[in-house]
Amino acid sequence: MIELQTFIQTYKGQIERKMYHEIDKLQAPPILKEAMNYSLRAGGKRIRPLLVLATMNSFGQDCKKGLAVAAALEMIHTYSLIHDDLPSMDDDDLRRGKPTNHKVFGEAHAILAGDALLTYSFHLISSMPTITPEQKVLLINELSQGAGAEGMVGGQVADIDGEGAELSLQELESIHVRKTGRLLQFSVFAGGIMSGVNPQQLDKLNEYAHHIGLAFQIRDDILDVEGEEDEIGKRVGSDESKDKSTYPALLSMEGARQKLEYHLISAKKSLEELPLQNDLLASIADLIVKRRS
Amino acid sequence: MIELQTFIQTYKGQIERKMYHEIDKLQAPPILKEAMNYSLRAGGKRIRPLLVLATMNSFGQDCKKGLAVAAALEMIHTYSLIHDDLPSMDDDDLRRGKPTNHKVFGEAHAILAGDALLTYSFHLISSMPTITPEQKVLLINELSQGAGAEGMVGGQVADIDGEGAELSLQELESIHVRKTGRLLQFSVFAGGIMSGVNPQQLDKLNEYAHHIGLAFQIRDDILDVEGEEDEIGKRVGSDESKDKSTYPALLSMEGARQKLEYHLISAKKSLEELPLQNDLLASIADLIVKRRS
Q1: For range B117-132, the mean pLDDT
Q2: Which of residues 78-117 of A touch B (CB under 8 A)?
């Protein structure tokens, strides 16, 4: 049975090579490719693409067949970070310990690099030779909903508009479900679709993804209070300084930790009835809850 | 035989209703929907969606079946205008005689409204009940290439980077082919695909679209020098004030007019061997060349 660390070591590099290769071969202005590449190469846990491949691997599939979807997801995630960091949004100078895209390339190129990454992700999926047209349409349909006004973009709008306001726990969760949850959910959904799972299994996968998505955000909020600046690569306490609502602020640190534990247990419970061939998905839930950055 | 004016009167409203309806039904923050709606409702010639439908109608198809692609194209066009107008790009205060999106909603919401429109356009196409999964994949594949780094976004980067530089005619055309040409080309391509044309016919349609695309840009440049401010809805002479290369500047006004005529004749010539049932596409070429705004 494959260990998560071995799995990550094997596939993280493949995901990254796939992304870099796709950008390299674009017939596009060099400065645009450089700006796209810069943020893709800035590192990161690659949790979304790894989730796609881990889901496929868990169902006994050759997960290399999902590499293009994995790369597309990381491109969409990266575009969202580039736009979120802009001066008119979160106005962040650092991301993963490096200057943000607009600090290096200027705002115009940063916006356009984001636009290009978003657009190209749909090209990647629609170009896949490994899945059927029906599967491509299903994935694109779901992704374009989860990444758009009803999902990630809507979540970012709600997040910006919620700054300085006292949000209820429900409002806070609604923001996170959209802003980060939907793409995580899509990662597992895509892996499930490419593994040919049935609707009941897809529901369970979806439940699992819902819980790890919220766990991910709670852990983020806890790290923002407790983490070491050099480990998380951005200023510690930046949520508080921006007057953002967080789980520790709403529930106390102890309450936030309990909530985190609840989502971890629930995520693992969702996996119980699935015919999985290994523990990769459970291990990813552990990783999300225990990560130091 | 249907006249272009009748055709436009019939379908422009349907395209617009389709777009507004799609935005209205989104489960998204009201301010985001408002920002998306604002720019979609700011008017415009709707030339791209009309081209989709006119191509279908010319081949004897029920062009209502293409409404979702038509709406998607206008959404992508609108997103590109919102982002192009931003302070870090063209820094325009007016668009079609109204304050630009970021002037009304602020930069953050303008960027996100653009992101949401782009993302939703792929959702619209992937949701269509009127075409096959194979057709959807083909359209999405082509659109995501034409709108991205190799097409429209790449053209915008080249345009920004070319400001202040002396561009050759070839460089100028290369920018326009990408920045405006590719989406116009896709409009006709999509109409052709949804009409089931063969590859040779698709080539001819592509040639037609190439010429009307360049004609469109030359006419734009001429209007920027000669047009009336209240007719074109933006400041006359704004290209010159931004030190942008234009056809009149490179070829003289007389040379630009000759080039415009050449592309009009070439566009119509491309249509000659096609089994078209009416003159709609030729009339659209005339409209592009003779428009006053």
Answers
A1: 97
A2: 83, 86, 88-89, 106-109, 111-112, 114-116
